[in-house]
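Case study 2.
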Amino acid sequence: MKVLVDTPIWFYALRLHSIKYQSEINELTVLIRDQRALIIGPIRQEILSGYNDLQKYKNLKEKLFYFDNTAIIDDDYELTAIFSNKCRIDT
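Prediction:
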């Protein structure tokens, strides 16, 4: 099963380097190793934002090139809305 990895997890692994999030970083490492990690355009943009050092930006962009840009379709947004509504109701 493929897993869409959200921005905070990438942030923990690529920028924060905190032992506090080591289990999340380890899981991301496993997903990458098993070629199960997915990325979408908005997450890629968030990961790359905030680098005013052009060389660091280029290095990270090159590393992220490994991951195909998974397309987002309207059904994805609608399913997300269903999950969001359900989570709000169930809490």
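The chain has a mean pLDDT of 91.
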